[in-house]
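Researcher: Next sequence.
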Amino acid sequence: MVENQIKTQTTQNRWLVVLAAVVLELALGAIYAWSTFASYLKTEEGWTSTQTQWVFSAGTLALAITVIFAGKLNESFGPQKLIILSAVITGGGYILGGILPLNPIWTTITVGLIGGGGIGIAYALPISVCSKWFPDKKGLVVGLGMAGFGSGSLIWQYLLKGVLYDAIGISLTFVIYGFCFIVMIMFSYFFLYNPPMGYTVEGYDPIMKNNADKTKEEVNFTRKEILKMPQFYFLFYTLMVGSGAGLMVIGIAKIWPQQVLSDLGYLNAAEIATFSAAVIYPLFNGLGRIIWGWLSDKIGWKKSIIIMDTVQAITIFLIVLLVQTPATLFIGMAIIAFNYGANFTVFPMATAGVFGQKYLSSNYGWVFFSFGIGALIGPSLGGYFNDTGNQLTAFIISGVSLVIGVVFTFLIKQPKKSTSN
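Model: Next structure:
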């Protein structure tokens, strides 16, 4: 029985839903702080770079796969039961990571697979719930919620490095991390639930809103139906290359600029590159989710994807020229992070716009799986060409892939259906 359900049929202040979404995603977004753990494990525990990336790769892949199943479970059981499940599994994965031996295999299983799976259970809940409470501001509120996921690492990595593992060690840090996850995720339980049946917003006209993307009255398609449609594969490909390009840059955001700036004679190249990767990227990653969400409410998801991926392609084509001074490095990284973050706000809106709101949780889970593939391809592409000293090739491949995604987006039209489900 779908849950509107546990709560009484009175409406709360809907902005509390957004607050709960932000807190939830701040906890889940700590996965992006893994580079701080990886640095410690490499220098203090003797792990190889490849071994440290096993954990992150396992976590992102588990996240992407779990989102698929979580979407269907959300439709059946509602968000609050999944929030409890996410708190137990995410927190438990990190706590086990601190209790069990600290080695690549155990940590990949506990922090990577279990922790990443727990994150995936709750990751997309704010998209579904906030969209229902704010049909008039879907892009903005989803962007606000998802900004916590994009910029959470900015908070977590400094807390970890400055307060926790330097003082108490990484194993105990994992345990504390896990309990923090449980508390923050469970906070969202009290506010992140679906609105009552028949809930509407005064003055909101869905037909006028849909006209921003030149779509007709909403028609809903199930997961089985969308997997047979070219529109699904256009969205899948475009999100895959958009997220993959951003993750490729994240993967070498510190190493490669440091090499270039050092060769150019900058004595503080390491500090410049670290600031770019640890501050500029997560900050603009979060801002991109908010601003592009707001903008997609105004101009529609289709124009938003076309603009952001066109700008992203141009920036990636020019990135070799931009990484020449600290100022141009920061500008280039800011633009790439800004557009990378936008993917996770605009594509939920695109999925709802093309396939309808009713089955958004399940349908977006399948679209979002493309992120898992992008997470495997993007960093590997960047790492390989960085090792061979031919970074330009990686950027050309990413830029061309983005251009193809822009063409696919032009081709997307709302599918027709005689009756709504």
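Model: Confidence is low (pLDDT under 50) at residues 1-10. Residues 15-189 form a domain with the Growth Hormone; Chain: A; fold (CATH 1.20.1250.20).
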